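Lecture 7 notes: from sequence to structure.

We start with a single chain of 182 residues. Read the sequence below before looking at the structure.
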Amino acid sequence: MNTSKLNRLVTAVACLGTVTAALILSGCTTRIVDYTLLSTKNVDLSKAGAFKRGPNRVTGEDDQYIIIFIPTSQQPNFKTAVDRAIESVPGAVALVDGVVSQRNWWFIIGENAIIIEGTPLIDPSLPGAQASLKAARFVSFYNPATGKQETKAVSKATYQEIKDLVRCHDDAGLSKMLLALD
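Now the structure, written as tokens:
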């Protein structure tokens, strides 16, 4: 094989590799809308003056994976994503000052997702709300005993201990500590 044919072959393979990598790594997150107040819960607006903003922003999402052209579940649901964000903070009844986004990517395997982000609006009269208002930090983790994602308010010292366990890659210690949180 002469040099010019070899150069063309190398160039063709490099171009094909670049196009394939671009397709695999491509994806798109699109900002759909910004909102001032959003809730899927029954909110007693006569108590709105007592509501407090949470200290941290929260995110909720619902997604659907696709294999080839076959979806593995239903279309992503807006209400489910909003509920997940609100329910991640005890005492939250709504979200304020947030963003709704949509994420899509696909190449043989893909994903469609609705992402809701915002600051929780907390009703102090609801159970668990006081802890949410006082907490400077939250941790979120999957609890295999309940089969659910849980979010807990933690002190600054506990949060630092969790960060240290993550840095040391102490998975057993981290799991033990997270499952022991009240």
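Residues 27-126 form one domain. Keep this in mind for problem set 3.
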